[in-house]
């Protein structure tokens, strides 16, 4: 099994910055694409950004230029740098990852979710 643990959420000021981290742990052979999603009040969960193992990135169009995703493969960790925060960035942010684990039947690729971390942008 794989666990994703997010950290770095909390209260941010409008115009300020926050940095989220998500570390994958468990019986990991390799972590492929990692990403961040968010779900605001009364809104469907949406993709924020994703990054491949070779650091090819993809962003939601509305967030390009303000958010930056990065990863450290040695630590199986993905980061989300959020700048110029806006009130509408308030949401629960979820980490997501595709990870290979070794099972009795061989290698298995599955998608995993973290528990989420609350980000609130308010003055």
Structure, briefly:
With 123 residues, the chain is mostly beta strands. It has strands at 2-7, 10-12, 18-26, 28-39, 46-51, 57-59, 67-72, 77-82, 91-103, 106-113, 117-121.
Order of helices and strands: EEEEEEEEEEE
Radius of gyration: 15 Å
Anisotropy-based shape: elongated
Would you report the number of β strands?
11
* Poorly predicted residue ranges: none
Instruction: Report helical residue fraction.
Output: under 10%
Description:
The chain has 123 residues and is an all-beta fold. It is built from no helices and 11 strands. It has strands spanning 2-7, 10-12, 18-26, 28-39, 46-51, 57-59, 67-72, 77-82, 91-103, 106-113, 117-121. Strands 2, 4, 5, 6, 9, 10 and 11 form a 7-stranded mixed β-sheet that branches. Strands 1-3-8-7 form a 4-stranded antiparallel β-sheet, with no helix packed on it. β9 and β10 (106-113) form a beta hairpin. The mean pLDDT is 96.
Give short descriptive properties of this protein.
elongated, mainly beta, single chain
Topology (elements, then pairings):
Layout: E1 2-7, E2 10-12, E3 18-26, E4 28-39, E5 46-51, E6 57-59, E7 67-72, E8 77-82, E9 91-103, E10 106-113, E11 117-121
Parallel strand pairs: 2-11
Antiparallel strand pairs: 1-3, 3-8, 4-5, 4-9, 5-6, 7-8, 9-10, 9-11
């Amino acid at each position: 099994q794989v666990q994703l643990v997010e950290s770095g959420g909390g209260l941010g000021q409008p115009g300020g910055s926050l940095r989220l981290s998500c570390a994958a742990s468990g019986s990991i052979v390799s972590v492929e694409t990692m990403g961040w999603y968010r779900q605001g009040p009364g809104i469907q969960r949406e993709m924020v950004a994703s990054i491949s193992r070779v650091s090819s990135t993809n962003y939601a169009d509305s967030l390009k230029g303000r958010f930056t995703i990065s990863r450290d493969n040695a630590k199986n960790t993905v980061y989300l740098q959020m700048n110029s925060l806006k009130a509408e960035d308030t949401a629960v942010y979820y980490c997501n990852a595709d990870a290979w684990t070794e099972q009795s039947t061989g290698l298995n690729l599955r998608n995993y979710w973290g528990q989420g971390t609350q980000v609130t942008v308010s003055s």
